[in-house]
Amino acid sequence: MMRAHLLALAAIGLLAGSLGAVAQTYPVEVESCFDRVRFDGPPKRALVNDTNMVQTILDLGLADRIVGVSGIRGVERHLVGDPKVIAGLNQFIDRYPSLEAVLGLDPDFMFAGWSYGFRASTGLTPASLATMGVKTYVLRESCIRIGKREPIGMETLYADIAALGALFGIRERAEAVIAAQKARVAAVADRLQGVPSRPRVMYCDDCYSPSPPLSVGREGMTALIIRLGGGESLFDDIANSYVRVNWEEVAKRDPQWIIVNDHRVPIEQTIRHLLSDPQLSHVEAIRERRFIPLTYAEQTPSTRSIDGLEKIARALHPDRFR
């Protein structure tokens, strides 16, 4: 599967160089949450928030369109791409910049999501940017924060990539990325046909202290890749994306595997806390030390989500990948 992955990336790279130049007519309209946004031409001064969306823009070969990024300070090491390009990204001082700071870069476009940069409480929203002539695209998964969207599926992620392809004028490149991802998802599904059991899996963020941890309900990307990877997401009864839970409920539900990331806190620190908490000592995942490390971009919606899916599937069902 790894060889197929590398070949797919190589093919996408060739397509990025050739198909990206194919002329595209404007205007185009894309669906952004519950609105439609019209683009009369491709963005030339784009802002991008958070590691997963920056990674997607880099993977689509659009680094030259970026005038500013936010949410990646201190975690640049997780980005995959040309080190010179990553080092050259113009970062905001604040992790979550204000509307004024954003407008100070004179952007014509912003790619972010609800709870991924857009927040009514800060005034940085698609509506406020629209009044200043700045177009936006909202991460599809995050739309659950402001209304009822379709149940999450891989099509939710593909919709993001297709929309970015249309509005940036690189439809063929985006379609090549989607096709490669669909092939990899299908390969995992084929390997997991008829698995006899689906282990209970918890996504555990902010799990390095006694404070309530952040996990995922059934509408988050992490829950989706857990299910597609042959597991049962621990909090699938919660109809939301990322949610605070309590340790007592975690202990009661007894996860058999725990997903951790080292986005801002080292995985070793998180695991050390989990192993030392007496109320969790009976939890199977902790007792057996079953942890699945993923990067932030692998567990949130991005062009790297399929990497996360494959890692989960291999951890839960290693016999299917020998």
Automatic annotation (TrEMBL):
Residues 45-320 form the Fe/B12 periplasmic-binding domain. Residues 1-23 form the signal peptide. The keyword Signal applies. InterPro entries: ABC_Transporter_SBP, ABC_transptr_periplasmic_BD. Keywords: Signal. This is Iron complex transport system substrate-binding protein. It comes from Enterovirga rhinocerotis.
